Amino acid sequence: MFSVVLAAGFAAASNFFMRRGIDSGGTAKAFIMIQMFVALLVAMAMGPMQADAHIISGSIALLGAAAGVFLVFMLTMLGKALEHGPSGLTFSILSGATVFPGMIMAVLFGSSFGFIFNNWHAIGSILVLGGLFWAGKGLTGLRDRKRWMLFVAAMFLCHILILMIFQWRALLLRLEYPEELSSYFTSVAIRSPWFMPMLYLSASLIQIGLYLKTEKRIPSSMEWLNGAAGGVASCLCSFFLIRGTELAVGLENAVILPMYSIGVIVFSNLWSQCLYREQVNWRAAQICSLGLFIGTVDWTSVLALYF
């Protein structure tokens, strides 16, 4: 579980560097461009180069590129939200989205494909929404509240779509013959290590194009520093989260992802309160975290360990 705590800490650190880059006079576009490029280099080193894989599957390249498009849009909306509202609550809402992809996948594919949605998940989802709504009620005096809410809603939906792509890929990885569910993916193609590099490549290209079109300048030294730090922190987050899932045993398998999401909420709110003196509604954060725990834990596996 220590790996999961580290992953949550690095995710919160990446969030911090984004906020710091904006506050230092930089822009979200510059930060995202540098972050995605650094993440691309790390993903290449940890994926295809390590596996010595030189052949790129067209289907997995398109799937990764699609996820990259949603990722860029989500990060752009995240940057806009940070420019108009509180960082702690913004990142809490981003983490809160993790409870909903499983619910949607359960509706689309059902329990026969391993996606289960029961009363516990429904209660968790209600608690997450209730906690976020409670936290949002304290923003009545926010200057650009409507714009912030618009950016946050778009960010929230994009995060759900990205997570659904990841769960769709995970579903195909579990099948012996994935082409029976989707003719575009064979068992060899879906296991290609090029998924993450193509995700970051498409995100990098789109973000470079947006940056050159709108800003047309060389990023400042602080933008390079914060963007690179954010990219490294993001990749370390992925590394420790994957490592945590590999080392998890027994009950840890059921609670690892909820604990990660809760950790991101806690750490992000801590630095926003300590460093930026933001007023954090900790009661609302606790309700949201409880909802994440109830709504994303695999309770069937938990109960099977004791009964």
Please tag this protein with its features.
single chain; about 0% strand; about 300 residues; mainly alpha
Write the layout of secondary structure elements.
Layout: H1 2-23, H2 28-46, H3 48-51, H4 58-84, H5 87-96, H6 100-109, H7 119-136, H8 145-174, H9 187-190, H10 195-214, H11 221-247, H12 252-276, H13 282-296, H14 299-306
Helix pairs in contact: 1-11, 1-12, 2-10, 2-11, 4-8, 4-10, 5-7, 5-8, 5-12, 6-8, 7-13, 12-13
Characterize the structure shown.
- The chain has one domain (2-306).
- It is built from 14 helices and no strands.
- The chain has helices spanning 2-23, 28-46, 48-51, 58-84, 87-96, 100-109, 119-136, 145-174, 187-190, 195-214, 221-247, 252-276, 282-296, 299-306.
- The longest helix has 30 residues, at 145-174.
Quick rundown:
The chain is mainly α and 307 residues long.
Q: Quickly count the domains.
A: 1
Q: Give the proportion of residues in helices.
A: over 70%
- Listing every helix as H and every strand as E from the N terminus to the C terminus, the arrangement reads HHHHHHHHHHHHHH
Low-confidence stretches: none
| Largest sheet: number of strands, sense, barrel closure | none
How many helical elements? 14
| Strands, count | 0
State the shape: globular
Structural class by helix and strand composition: mainly alpha
**What fraction strand?**
under 5%
Mean pLDDT: 82
**Distance between the first and last residues' Cα:** 23 Å
User: Taking Cα atoms only, what radius of gyration do you get, to the nearest Å?
Assistant: 19 Å
